[in-house]
Design brief:
Layout lengths: L30 E3 L2 H5 L7 E8 L2 E8 L11 E5 L17 H7 L3 E4 L23 H16 L3 E6 L1 H12 L4 E6 L10 H12 L3 H5 L3 H10 L8 H6 L3 E9 L4 H11 L4 E3 L3 E4 L3 E6 L10 H11 L6 H10 L25 E8 L2 E8 L10 E4 L7 E7 L5 E10 L5 E6 L2 H7 L7 E7 L4 H4 L16 H12 L2 H8 L5 E4 L8 E4 L4 E3 L15 E4 L4 H21 L5 E4 L6 E3 L12 H18 L4 E2 L7 E3 L13 H14 L1 H7 L18 H12 L2 E7 L2 E7 L5 E8 L2 E5 L7 E5 L4 E10 L5 E5 L3 E3 L3
Parallel strand pairs: 1-2, 4-5, 4-6, 6-7, 7-8, 8-11, 12-16, 17-18, 17-19, 19-23, 23-25, 24-26
Antiparallel strand pairs: 2-3, 3-5, 9-10, 10-11, 12-13, 14-15, 15-16, 20-21, 20-22, 27-28, 28-31, 29-30, 29-32, 32-33, 32-34
Helix pairs in contact: 2-10, 12-18, 16-17
Length: 777
């Protein structure tokens, strides 16, 4: 039998609510319960906020979303715990998280606000410990037990950062079937950032921050222990709790928590290493080190949604789930040898480690790399003596946990004017260039989507209206291809070019030959926009004798141009075989145009011809184990390569031009040490976002003396609509929640709109409308 608060009769009267809380933004008035017992005995828990009094001074705010009593069999009930409340500035609680992701997951769930924050309006992070003597952790464990007893469902604790700590802490003491999903959690409050820790300690102990600063970590730990506060979670305690069925602990590899929280927690863990990124116990427990997000950023929302969709189903275990997420491209499986870990001298890489010290007006900086295998094995890094004496600088080489593994005496180098690279080709060359040290190299120009056959054919009109392409890069490449602009662009930049990278990937779809001799490149950008029944032109596929003949003629002109521009000896052709399998799962790679097997069969004839006619060195031709990562930023394709392939290509190019580097940069630098890692970007999320946006569109039509612009089929947080007449922007609209706009015009002309979309994850993309010719007003 439930016991509503005195005088309410229903458990919902305002007299039972804490005066300092603000429940107005959470819908109807909360239900208030005088104890956990009365809450547990209630006939029903309706959706909305429930205020459960744990003591006369402490309460737990719970948000019930959906009908908990209708939770499906074999489905866990998610329980969300919040991290820091950014920008609180005295705002009143409660503070709930999880609503955004669960709107896509579906099903009933619970959100718990941190009772610790109710005691100090300026406190942003309290780790759900409560004040000394309140027994908040134990009370929350009893709350979980009450929910399980009523519903008969497993509970899934979910939280990131400080909410992740709370989830792991509750996992130590839960007495009912429970699973845990956390990302970037703290595992010891006292090892978190000093400012928030001091704020927290001051709020719960009433010590001044000056007094607390005088205490060392041992003293602070004793201070909390004496007051019954658990400040550190133990992996073995979680593993030893038979009620914890499943655990998924995600940790960003570039987060400082790796050394301060993740590995100290693993040291106390029965989990065993499985590959370079995972630590597992059976199929049910996994701690994953991943480059899915940068620094302490949360995992991308689509990934969290996907994990929750799987883990709410009680039969799904985390270890197989990690494998599936890699296969789907939602978790990276590339570059794992570079993930932070303790250095193992048995790797035998010491002699291949290099350190470079850059000296500039800002001071001394250092970086370390490896000239064999992974560029940053075990998360290799370097720390230079900030005040060296003389030219030699002492550099400390460190592993992924910041532990010193050796020292080097390295001469400091003042970075020169950067060497300029001209890229002609596809993402094969462009993405390889990204592995060149940006301190030394910069991009001169990038010409893509332009077959060599097209580049040396007469100019003409674009195959489609450029306004149909949403990307300014795509439009520019289309216009350059129609213009046959490569000779002009290279001639203009030739005096500054130090290296020229070239690949044949954009030859793969062949060319369109017009009756008048004009040639345009067939590309994936224009294919969706081609009208039916093209006349006065025909497509010539790559690999046919006709295409090869046209390519041979253009190649001789290309050689002449390279000679005239003085860059023939600076050119390198990147020609790795096309990838036939993905990373990590080794399934066949599919793509538009020829298959990998077809391209690898046809390409040698072109490469032999290039070597014969131009003498340009070809690198990568002999590579064998090339893969296309499922998490490649541009998606899976035979010519979207793994990190190891790009590193090998970059090393081959810099090895060929080592003399230039020693002359222009420093004789003390090993050219191979200028190969660096590309900052990881979770690509499949971007690909999915663009795909979702591309399913929508923007349309314009004339309504008397106005242009009406309408965006459809796209979910957005905000949009901005710009209108163009020809190449002139005639209207720049404000950011708005409206998907349409009406813009007055005063001249005839060719109009198009660009709609800038800010999606709900905070990313932006532009969508081009149709083109509209206005003849009269």
């Amino acid at each position: 039998m439930s016991t509503p608060l005195k005088g309410t009769g229903t458990g919902m009267a305002n007299s039972g609510l804490p005066a300092a809380s603000d429940y107005g933004r959470w819908g109807e008035a909360p239900a208030a319960w005088d104890s956990l017992k009365s809450f547990g005995e209630a006939a029903q828990w309706r959706p909305g906020v429930h205020v459960i009094w744990l003591s006369p001074a402490t309460h737990l705010d719970v948000l019930v979303v959906g009908d908990l009593h209708e939770a499906a069999d074999a489905r866990a009930v998610p329980v969300f715990l919040s991290g820091a409340v950014t920008g609180r500035n005295g705002a009143s609680g409660p503070f709930f998280s999880g609503l955004g992701v669960m709107s896509e997951v579906g099903g009933p769930y619970l959100c718990l606000s941190d009772p610790t924050l109710d005691h100090d309006s300026e406190l942003a992070l309290g780790w759900y410990t409560g004040l000394p003597g309140e027994g908040v952790r134990e009370a929350m464990a009893h709350f979980l037990a009450a929910v399980h007893t009523r519903l008969g469902r497993e509970l899934l604790l979910v939280g990131g950062s400080g909410g992740g700590f709370a989830a792991l802490s509750l996992a130590e003491v839960t007495s009912v079937p429970t699973s845990v999903f956390v990302w970037n959690p703290q595992t010891d409050i006292l090892r978190y950032s000093p400012g928030p820790v001091l704020d927290y300690l001051s709020a719960i102990t009433r010590f001044t921050t000056a007094d607390l600063r005088a205490l060392n970590d041992d003293d602070r730990a004793a201070l909390l222990s004496e007051r019954g506060i658990t400040h550190a979670v133990k992996a073995r305690a979680v593993a030893a709790n038979p009620h914890v069925r499943r655990l998924m602990y995600g940790q960003n590899a570039t987060d400082w928590h790796v050394g301060s929280h993740f590995f100290p927690w693993l040291d106390d863990s029965p989990l065993e290493a499985s590959g370079r990124d995972s630590y597992v116990r059976g199929d049910t427990h996994v701690a994953l080190l991943s480059e899915i997000s940068v620094g302490h950023d949360p995992w991308p929302k689509p990934v969290i949604v996907r994990v929750l969709q799987e883990l709410v189903r009680c039969e799904n275990n985390p270890v197989p789930l990690v494998d599936r997420l890699k296969q789907e491209g939602l978790l990276p499986a590339d570059g794992l040898d570079n993930l932070p870990r303790r250095w193992d001298a048995r790797d035998g890489l010491e002699e291949d480690l290099r350190a470079i010290v850059w000296r500039s007006a800002e001071g001394i900086s250092a970086r370390a790399t490896c000239i064999r295998g992974a560029t940053q094995p075990a998360g290799l890094s370097a720390l230079a003596d900030p005040a060296p004496e003389g030219e030699l600088v002492t550099v400390s080489l460190r592993d992924g946990l910041g532990v010193e593994i050796g020292q080097r005496q390295v001469p400091s180098v003042t970075p020169p004017a950067r060497l300029k690279i001209f890229v002609y080709g596809s993402c094969v060359s462009r993405d390889t260039f990204a592995y060149f040290d940006s301190t030394v190299f910069t991009l001169s120009n990038y010409v893509a989507r332009q077959s060599l056959v097209s580049a040396f054919a007469p100019a003409g009109d674009p195959l489609i209206d450029p306004a149909k392409l949403s990307s300014s890069f795509q439009r520019r490449m289309l216009e350059w291809d129609a213009e046959s602009a490569l000779p002009r662009l290279l001639s203009q930049r030739a005096p500054e070019v130090d290296l020229l990278l070239w690949d044949l990937t954009d030859e793969r779809l062949g060319v369109w030959l017009y009756d008048d001799g004009h040639v345009t490149t067939s590309s994936v950008d224009i294919a969706p926009h081609l009208p039916d029944g093209l006349v006065n032109r025909r497509r010539i596929p790559f690999g046919t004798d006709e295409h090869f003949s046209l390519f041979r003629a253009a190649l001789h002109q290309w050689r002449s141009l390279l000679e005239q521009c003085g860059v023939l000896h600076k050119a390198v052709l990147l020609a790795p075989p096309w990838a036939t399998q993905t990373l990590p799962v080794g399934v066949a790679v599919e793509g538009r145009g020829p298959t990998a097997e077809e391209a690898n069969r046809v390409m040698p004839r072109y490469l032999d011809l290039i070597e014969e006619v131009t003498g340009v060195p070809v690198v990568g031709r002999g590579l064998s184990d090339v893969r296309s990562p499922t998490a490649h930023r541009w998606g899976v394709a035979p010519f979207h390569y793994d990190e190891a392939t790009h590193v090998e290509l970059a090393r081959a190019v810099l090895g060929l031009h080592g003399g230039l580097i020693r002359e222009r940069v420093s004789s003390a630098i090993d050219p191979l040490a200028l190969v660096t890692r590309v900052p990881p970007r979770p690509p499949i999320v971007e690909a999915e976002r663009r795909s979702a946006v591309n399913r929508g569109g923007a349309n314009i039509r004339q309504v008397r003396r106005e242009i009406e612009v309408t965006l459809s089929g796209v979910q957005f947080a905000s949009v901005r609509i710009d209108l163009y007449r020809g190449s002139e922007r005639v209207s720049a609209g404000p950011w708005s929640k409206e998907a349409s706009a009406t813009i007055a015009i005063d001249e005839a002309g060719l109009y198009r709109a660009r709609v800038h979309v800010l999606d709900r994850q905070g990313s932006r993309i532009a969508i081009a409308s149709n083109t509209l010719r206005v003849s009269r007003l």
